[in-house]
Amino acid sequence: MTDVLISYARRDRGIAARLAACLEERGLKAVWDVSELPEGALMHGARQRVAQAPAVVVLWSESALESAWVCDEADAAAARNAHVAALLGGAQNPIAAQTSVDLAEWRQTGAVAGVDALIAAIAATSSQSHPPVLSPVPDDAAPLAPVAPAPLPEESSGGGFGAAIGFVLVWLLLIGISV
Fold it and tell me: What element of type H or E holds 56?
């Protein structure tokens, strides 16, 4: 089961990948990328994940504030008390959240305190969120599976190592799907 869904603006994709890797290193199952699903399944898949995730971490940045998709996911998560706001510096959380965590320092320096505070917020939110809402899957929808490509170069933390981690995550995902 997913412990956390990460919602983010396309421009913040590299940050979402880094955060997902940090959370997974600490034992949480993070879903953050559904971009390879077919268009029809993409909207249903995103809605289903927001409805089912015990906690939805929304990466609030200037780009996220302009994204109708991110705001819609944050609204849906807030309605279930599942919204955890992760502030990336400069942006304020426009939607009520169980908790807000400032990740600006983590984004700049990799400081673990921000991630530790986020994990505590995820745990608290997960225990207080409304039960997941299940909705029927359309017959033509593709199977839902998290996808973990390597971070974009602008947020890369060292070139080949990040790509190797992404490859391993995708490989592990594929093994999990086939089981």
Answer: strand 56-60
pTM greater than 0.70? no
Q: What is the pLDDT of residues 122-151, one digit of tens each?
A: 998 887 765 544 444 455 554 444 444 445
| Cβ atoms 48, 65 nearer than 8 A | no
**156 with 14: CB under 8 angstroms?**
yes
Neighbours of 25 (CB within 10 A): 10
H-only helix segments in the chain: 13-25, 39-52, 62-65, 68-79, 104-109, 112-128, 160-178
Yes or no: say if 130 and 82 are a contact pair by the CB < 8 Å rule.
Answer: yes
Across the chain, which distance is largest between two alpha carbons, in Å? Answer: 45
